[in-house]
Write a structure and sequence with these properties.
This protein has about 270 residues and is an alpha/beta fold. The chain has helices at about 20-30, 40-45, 50-65, 85-100, 120-140, 160-170, 180, 190-195, 225-235, 250-255, 255-270, and strands at about 10-15, 35-40, 65-70, 105-110, 145, 175-180, 200-205, 245. Helix 4 (about 85-100) links the parallel strand 3 (about 65-70) and strand 4 (about 105-110).
Length: about 270
């Protein structure tokens, strides 16, 4: 089964098939002709790092799969220094996997601040992640920080695009712009223009105003986010990367991945020049 061709800048995150394991993802991507993907650190870990990495690398070699990013949730519990060594090891293992599959970018949220003030959490993150960023730079694997919805303090403490850009510049890292978390920010177009040099990845999904749960995302065009405007502001500002579909939540599960993901690919493809 092959669906209509996607725009080459449309990427499908493994988060969009959240309930699938890695083998199911690979089968789904092949059946739907999806050639540009975001791989999941959690799924690689659950499948077994060596076995999972080998499967993805085989798809890269065998059918030209493009791994545009490798994504994971906040690696550090920033208020608990005792866990940092183990958390660093997981990040370094993720770098090994990224190198093995040719991932173009590695993306993580910051991790929770706990009871730390924002500024103290930023200081802690800088100290915790420094060895990983040095290793990523040595391997020439771009590292990007993702900001999160303010309800998701369990995975990150940075909740605006403006703030994550400031933090990324401080760490000499990149940024993953999550449209679902920043679309209503003040002066968004200006932030995009002034930050385009550090934006490494853009995640796209829709949201229905009045939704009171998270994550509860929609196929682009099914909700209220002005996605077309934001996509074109990014392109006009000089963004040349992929647009990563990250669909997750009850509405996506209810429709089913076999329908929701191809619809999302078609909707996003229609917005791109």
């Amino acid at each position: 089964m092959t669906d209509a061709a996607a725009h080459p800048r449309v990427c499908v995150s493994a988060i969009s098939t959240f309930r699938f394991d890695l083998a199911q993802d690979l089968d789904f991507w092949a059946r739907h002709g999806i050639d540009c993907v975001g791989a999941s650190v959690a799924k690689l870990d659950a499948f077994g790092w060596e076995r999972g990495t080998s499967l993805v690398a085989e798809a890269v070699r065998g059918r030209g799969l493009r791994v545009a990013n490798l994504i994971g949730l906040g690696p550090f519990a920033l208020a608990d220094r005792s866990g940092w060594p183990v958390q660093r090891e997981r990040l370094l293992r993720s770098l090994d996997a990224a190198a093995a599959v040719g991932a173009e970018c590695m993306v993580f949220t910051t991790g929770p601040a706990g009871r730390l003030a924002w500024e103290a959490a930023a200081d802690a993150l800088e100290e915790a992640i420094a060895p990983v960023l040095v290793e990523a730079a040595a391997r020439e694997i771009p590292f990007a920080l993702e900001h999160t919805n303010s309800l998701r303090v369990d995975v990150g403490f940075v909740h605006t695009l403006h703030d994550v850009v400031d933090l990324a510049r401080r760490l000499d890292a990149g940024v993953c712009m999550e449209v679902n978390a920043c679309w209503a920010e003040r002066d968004l177009s200006r932030t995009i223009r002034e930050s385009i040099d550090v934006i490494r990845l853009v995640q796209v999904s829709d949201f229905a105003v009045g939704t009171l749960s998270t994550p509860n995302r929609l196929v682009p065009g099914d909700g209220d986010i002005p996605i077309e405007r934001i996509v074109h502001e990014l392109i006009d500002a000089g963004y040349t990367g992929v647009f990563d579909l990250e669909l997750i939540g009850p509405r996506i599960d209810e429709e089913g991945y076999e329908s929701a993901v191809p619809r999302a690919i078609a909707a996003l493809t229609a917005l791109l020049p």
